[in-house]
Amino acid sequence: MSREGAGRGLTSEGFESLLAMLDPERERAGEVYEAIRHRLVRLFEWRGCAHPEDLADETFNRVARKSAGGLALQRSDPYAYFCGVAHHVFQEVVRREKRESKLLESGDWQPSSPPEEETDYRLDPLRDCLKTLEPDQQLLLLRYHQDEQRIQSRKGLCDELDIPMNALRIRVHRLRKKVETCIQEKLRN
Fold first, then answer.
1. Residue-number span of the structural domain to which 127 is assigned
2. Backbone angles phi, psi at 176, to 5 degrees
3. Which of 89, 133, 166, 174 would give a disulfide with 137, using CB separation of 3.0 to 4.6 Å?
């Protein structure tokens, strides 16, 4: 949310301070808390926010931190202050969504790729196990899973091999089982 308080939850000190600020009588403070929270959730819903409960909680967290820091409300109805804080929370959400939308629309983003040092520990066994297959079996297995136009690609494989689709699936399934068994053995060792 904000630089100041994003990701920080409500501490017991902050919560106690918040309740004391809402009303000196603890039970009445709890009722005021629930009433304000309900109104904030409805406010965020009305504004079309995806997670109104979370935003209401974030609003309470911020007010509680201010309360623990010595905030004293000047009005008899504390909702007005909470509503002001909620407005700031909402503005941050809108700004973040605009940034994310611009980034997605610009197309200037690169999908993150894992660092090269952190390669999957299963890749080496996979490569080794593929080498145990005959070259034509390797090619069949790789071609079956490789193309993005899978249906067309697999129909092409069926035509090349002059076999029905079901027979192709059975062959690939058997080859995949062989490779999976080999990988599991290598990973156990």
1. 121-188
2. -65, -40
3. 133
Exposed e or buried b per residue across 116-137, where buried means at least 16 C-beta atoms within 10 angstroms of its C-beta: eeeeeeeeebeeebbeebeeeb
Distance (Å, whole) CA 44 – CA 53: 8
Unique residue bearing structure tokens 């890749």: 123
Q: Do 84 and 131 reside in the same domain of the chain?
A: no
Query: Tokens 């697999």 correspond to what residue?
Result: 154
Using one digit for the tens of pLDDT, what is the confidence trace for 118-136?
Answer: 556 668 888 888 899 998 8
Tell me the average confidence (pLDDT) per consecutive run of 10 residues in the chain, 189 residues long: 48 83 89 93 90 90 85 79 92 86 64 56 82 88 78 84 87 90 86
Tell me, yes or no, whether 19 lies in a domain.
Answer: yes
pLDDT confidence of residue 88? 93
The Cβ of residue 69 has, within 10 Å, a number of other Cβ atoms equal to 9
What letter would DSSP give residue 117?
Answer: G
Q: Angle CA(73)–CA(24)–CA(83) in degrees, nearest 5? A: 35
